[in-house]
Amino acid sequence: FLRLLEAQLQDQRREHEEEVETLKSQVEAMKEEMERQQQAFLQTLQLSPEVQVEFGLQQEITRLTNENLDLKELLEKLEKNEKKLKKQLKIYMKKVQDFEASQALVQTERRRHELNRQVAVQRKEKDFQGMLEYYKEDEPLLVRNLIT
Q1: How far apart are CA 85 and CA 79, in angstroms?
Q2: pLDDT tens for residues 34-63?
């Protein structure tokens, strides 16, 4: 039990360290992006107003293009996920249909068995004497009905 807890603790520690490393790299990337934007901002302040407007428009176009690409990538992932979920749904629908068919078959067998029982009960109410004629293939059913 102690080994299991120790293994779980090591797994959690490893996951935590990986998460910390990921977050550190994200922070570094954000710092670099912020420094780049500050440099660009300082450069634009030194430009004439017309050039500042043009530069601002170029920056906005670049930002929107990147955002558009990210959205396209997200859309592709969602479409793949949708296809996967549709396939799973078809599989589960098939399983449900198979289950319902098997349940219907079981119900049919039960009804047939109940009808056989009712027939047997009806025959028991009559008073028979003598020999009984039957087909050879009906012998197991006849024996079963006699026993029940």
Answers
A1: 10
A2: 999 898 888 777 877 788 788 889 989 999
